[in-house]
Write a structure and sequence with these properties.
The chain is α+β, with helices and mostly antiparallel strands. It starts with a strand and ends with a helix. The longest helix has 40 residues, at 252-291. The chain is 49% helix and 17% strand.
């Protein structure tokens, strides 16, 4: 898992522009025993971030923190840790702070996955009140559209690479030579079983966790009903709203996050299945044309 800080600025049109990023230190990689490694290990969390921003300001790089980023594995993001981290950014830093999630596993296999989220106003208000009320799982996170822009030199290089040739100056003469670009045919691979099997495996695990959370709610509800049946006077009965708001009641947010993650897996499986069917139709058309 890789995490880091996002630097940039916000323009007047409500667009958040990310211009720079740097990773947070990993303590696992600071065991060499050298002085530099010990100094890097000593600067953790907030101190490391402030030190990096100070050094970037000295070289005229945007040092305004606008959020953070994190890598994910096959779309796993709806967790309590991510929610608490994002909540601290939106309450302590700025309400417009975002988190960018990158999935290297799906990206290397032809599907660019770069998501940007922030907590909805309803979720932030719910957490600030420390309420145990219900919220629609799909309204916990708010997805922000992402637009990737490259400098002119990078676009020119990509254009040359896409043509399979580039210009080089040899003895004052511009000559074109073949880049030998290796074309990848992974996107035409008909096998989607590994992805579907892994998604089904994770989906079954999340469903089991949701089932265990539901058992907690059922057990607490039975305890409330038993306490209410024992009291003959209505004044002795426990008020349902107050009972669920107490600290002894199980937290709803954990089960809501699990439900949101299950919905994400279902959407991804639908996408993989749709791409697989499109490849089958394409292959069927090629076979028919070849038979003619």
């Amino acid at each position: 898992m890789v995490t880091g800080s996002l630097l940039g600025l916000t323009d007047g049109n409500g667009v958040l522009e990310v211009t720079h990023a740097f990773p947070f230190p990993d303590n696992k990689h600071h065991k060499s025993g050298s002085d530099e490694a010990e100094d890097a290990a000593g600067l953790e969390g907030h101190e490391f971030q402030l030190e990096m921003m100070r050094m970037l300001r000295e070289v005229n790089v945007d040092n305004n923190c606008v959020g953070w980023y994190q890598s994910m594995y096959l779309g796993i993001y709806s967790t309590s840790n991510l929610l608490e981290n994002q909540l601290s950014y939106q309450t302590d830093l700025s309400p417009n702070a975002v988190v960018i999630l990158y999935d290297p596993m799906q990206t290397t296999n032809g599907t660019m996955v770069l998501k940007c989220y922030r907590l909805s106003d309803e979720c932030v208000a719910l957490k600030e009140r420390e309420s145990n009320a219900f919220i629609d799982p799909k309204n916990i996170f708010e997805e922000i559209p992402v637009t990737l822009t490259n400098p002119g030199l990078v676009r020119a290089l990509l254009t040359d690479i896409s043509d399979g040739s580039t210009a080089d100056s040899i003895n004052g003469k511009n000559e074109l030579y073949d880049m030998g670009t290796d074309t990848s045919f992974d996107r035409l691979d008909m096998s989607t079983n590994p992805y579907l099997e892994k998604h089904l495996e994770f989906l079954c695990g999340w469903v089991d966790e949701l089932s265990s959370e539901q058992h907690k709610f059922q057990y607490y509800a039975r305890q409330l009903s038993r306490g209410g049946d024992k009291g003959k006077n209505r004044r002795n009965k426990v008020d349902e709203a107050e009972a669920w708001a107490s600290s002894e009641a199980p937290r709803r947010m954990e089960s809501l996050l699990i439900s949101n993650q299950i919905r994400t897996y279902a959407d991804q499986m639908e996408k993989f299945s749709g791409n697989g069917l499109s490849k089958l139709y394409l292959l069927d058309g090629l076979h028919k044309n070849g038979a003619k």
